[in-house]
Amino acid sequence: MSGKEQLTTEPTRRRLTERQADTVRRLTDAAVVEVGESGYEGLTVRNVAKRAGVAPATAYTYFASKNHLITEVFWRRLSALPPVEADGTLLERVVEVLRDIALLVSDEPELAAACTTALLGTDPDVRELRVRIGVAIRERLQAALRDHDDPKILGALELAYTGALVHAGMGYTSYARMADRLAEMAELILPEPPE
User: Fold this and answer.
1) SUPFAM superfamilies from the entry (predicted)?
2) CA distances in angstroms from 193 to 90, 135, 187, listed in the order given
3) Among 38, 41, 92, 133, which has the minimal tally of Cβ within 10 Å of its Cβ?
């Protein structure tokens, strides 16, 4: 490693140099295009590697499976969200957090469906990212709840989000509609504001 290359922390398997981080970025960008064209069923790490201009063996050093790769795409989008705003009412803050998360992939139906499937994968790398995703969502909800950080309310909101994600992933509703439904559930779950 040259003196100019710095290590970048990535949620893949290890700390990466800038060049390696660029390879990972190219692979995740290519995965989004590939899943949009081929769907989840047609997606392969090998095809993503080809699209990214990376050798398949290199791609597999970063991603153990297509589930790992697609879960990484979701993680990157979640991580890129701006911090939770402190303004607004309790309901407005919580709805905004749920809406932001629900709409991460809503404009890309093939990617959205792939994310739902991938997040349920059993690969160790997927499980690790799923934990990170869960923690990040919990932290965003806690930031929105602020002093209303009741574990029962937090748990109910997490279950509402997870259930809505699976519901949309099964094709029962669109991801855009899921955001509206989550707003409705937040109204039911959150305490009434004092009069």
Assistant:
1) Homeodomain-like (SSF46689)
2) 8, 27, 11
3) 41
Encoding tokens for residue 31?
């995965």
Predicted TM-score (pTM) above 0.85: yes
Q: pLDDT tens digits, residue range 169-184?
A: 788 888 778 889 999 9
Q: Taking CA 39 as the corner, what is the angle to CA 38 and CA 40, rounded to the nearest 5 degrees?
A: 120
The residue to which tokens 């990040």 are assigned: 136
Which residues, 6 or more positions from 2, have their beta carbon under 8 angstroms from its beta carbon? none
Structure tokens belonging to residue 11:
């949620």
Question: To 5 degrees, how large is the angle CA 107–CA 109–CA 114?
Answer: 125
3-state secondary structure of 78: helix
3-17 residue pLDDT tens: 444 434 444 445 778
C-beta separation of 58 from 49 below 8 A: yes
The type of residue at 60 is Y
Which stretch of DSSP H or E encloses residue 16? Answer: strand 16-17
- Cβ contact 115:43 at 8 Å: no
Contact between residue 62 and residue 24 where contact means Cβ atoms under 8 Å apart: yes
Specify the higher pLDDT residue, 3 or 161. Answer: 161
